[in-house]
Design brief:
This protein is mainly α. The protein is built from eight helices and two strands; from the N terminus they run H-H-H-H-H-H-H-E-E-H. It has a two-stranded antiparallel sheet with strand order 1-2. The radius of gyration is 15 Å and the shape is globular.
Length: 115
């Protein structure tokens, strides 16, 4: 492996690690009860811990607990998916406030970390 490639990989891993440590689950719950919002609106398909349910697998829901998935998508893309929907998932912009959408997106990131 070349030194440049090794350096590039190390930088990518460091940046990816930063995605998984913005706030702890306890800190997140203090802002808005993001876990409640997620469990009430998302867990039916995406599963309580981010692993898709049978229904979610049938609809093509991603595995939020997957580190690969977590590093492959931006926070903005998660928010946009919740607002406007994606593939077979409907948008939630009429049911959830902007703050609740942001909170649900933050909880998706929490699900990517070992809990």
């Amino acid at each position: 492996m070349t030194r440049a490639l090794h350096t590039c990989i190390m930088i990518c891993l460091a940046l990816a690690g930063a995605l998984f440590c913005p706030v702890s689950p306890a800190e997140e719950k203090e802002k808005v009860d993001s876990e409640r919002i997620y469990n009430h609106n998302c867990a039916e398909c995406h599963g309580k811990f981010g692993k898709p349910t049978k229904r979610g697998r049938h609809l093509g829901a991603p595995d939020f607990a997957s580190r690969f998935w977590q590093v492959s998508i931006t926070d903005g893309q998660i928010v946009e998916s919740i607002k406007y929907g994606r593939n077979k998932m409907p948008g939630w912009r009429k049911e959830l406030t902007p703050e609740e959408i942001e909170a649900a997106a933050r909880w998706v990131r929490v699900l990517g970390r070992k809990r």
